[in-house]
Description:
Two copies of one chain form a homodimer. By secondary structure, the first copy, chain A, is α+β, with helices and mostly antiparallel strands. Chain A is 39% helix and 17% strand. The first copy, chain A, is globular, with a radius of gyration of 20 Å. Chain B binds a DNA duplex through residues 13, 15-16, 34-36, 44-52, 54-55, 66-68.
Amino acid sequence: MSAAIRSPQPPLTRSVEDYLKSVFHLTSQGGFATTSDIAAMLEVAPPSVSGMMKRLSETGLIEHVPYRGVQLTPQGRRAALQMIRRHRILESYLTSKLGFDWGDVHVEAERLEHAVSEKLIERMADALGEPRYDPHGAPIPTAAGEIEEAELVTLAEADVGGSVILQEVDDEHPERLHYLAEQGLTPGVRLRVIERQPFNGPTIVRRDDGTTRVVGQELGLLLFCRPTDGE
Amino acid sequence: MSAAIRSPQPPLTRSVEDYLKSVFHLTSQGGFATTSDIAAMLEVAPPSVSGMMKRLSETGLIEHVPYRGVQLTPQGRRAALQMIRRHRILESYLTSKLGFDWGDVHVEAERLEHAVSEKLIERMADALGEPRYDPHGAPIPTAAGEIEEAELVTLAEADVGGSVILQEVDDEHPERLHYLAEQGLTPGVRLRVIERQPFNGPTIVRRDDGTTRVVGQELGLLLFCRPTDGE
DNA sequence: TTTGATAATTAGGCTAGCCTAATACCCTGT
DNA sequence: ACAGGGTATTAGGCTAGCCTAATTATCAAA
Ligand SMILES: [Mn+2]
Ligand SMILES: [Mn+2]
Ligand SMILES: [Mn+2]
Ligand SMILES: [Mn+2]
């Protein structure tokens, strides 16, 4: 038996936490997260990513295959899921308990997630009744680090003629979220895909109340749907 | 096209914010904050303070008189008061709305104060009904940057025979705060100073319910009281 | 198979914040 | 007036994270 005590690891920095989240999101469909994708997501230069990847693989949070990309180790995945839980609980709490608009909570959570204690997050989760989805429909990992995985398709590529449930909406653009709320395009709504214009044109959908919406491709790519096979 | 508009001032870092708070607290009775006092309060080495004081005076947040100490400029004072408001609103919110113990909120607020937005603080203040004192009895600065100043005396030096109202309690030591709560020594309580033992001995006080408490000097120095002249 | 575009890495530099060790300053007691 | 002790500053160094410019690896097209 190794006497190696579970390292009294130094707390992760804000940067490290955000890198881990990025890698998690970029590898959620499997495969590797590339340097340039991470750089784009975090708005840093690619060499900054190379440098950070070196450090993170030295500390065992990621596996780095040079010139290929990176994946999270189990330890890195745990840390990433913890951050995602924090982020989504915060978004939920700000929305439900402090009257924040669903368009404004992401940027706030992006900072707070690095400053809250485990205890505070669990108090918030408790006050909310252990929510399973955040205000944008994204699943909230459990405190134990489990997260629901779902096969979703964007509205921009959903089969014409089929029906879908709008499940999750990209949370990063306040103005788009305001617009979507106005249009009644919020998680949970059922939509029938009526038509799609060619050349990356808009998708036309009908809500259950009979009204229709014309959704451009840019927006459609941010609406994640679950197809409902029947009618 | 247009003249490049530079953001007037980059956001303050966590370190800078904590230094400004320290200077505020150390100069609240007037005079200068010394390098070694700041160093002790922030648990950094004195040269770190010298370096930071240089930068802060270059950015106009403090006035530095070499070998004497520092004071806040109006701009530095505004920033410090804003941080103190954040800190105290956070402590109040965590206590009132999320069931935190008054001994545990300080350390949590010490981190969160650097991550919350102005908007979030005002939402919390609103939810609390614009509280004027934090859980430890410290006055909360207004959003406009005004703070109540009071002449308080520690229980360890209050006149024997007089009466005092316990107004404010040092907030940094969880165990001491737990003990004080047990003893019913919380802000607002009225105490008659019965006796004080010599050689920095304890102060004996009587509460309005007739029970007495023996308060050692170490604890007594952390209890800030307002003398009530009458009986 | 060579080549060129693209992506990734390395090289070198910068700032914020911290440190220790060395030095300078200030004040008080003689 | 001056010496010592204590405090403050300067000198020099380190890490985390970021940057740009230069270099190298990969891969697909010619
Ligand atoms: Mn978000
Ligand atoms: Mn973040
Ligand atoms: Mn506090
Ligand atoms: Mn702080």
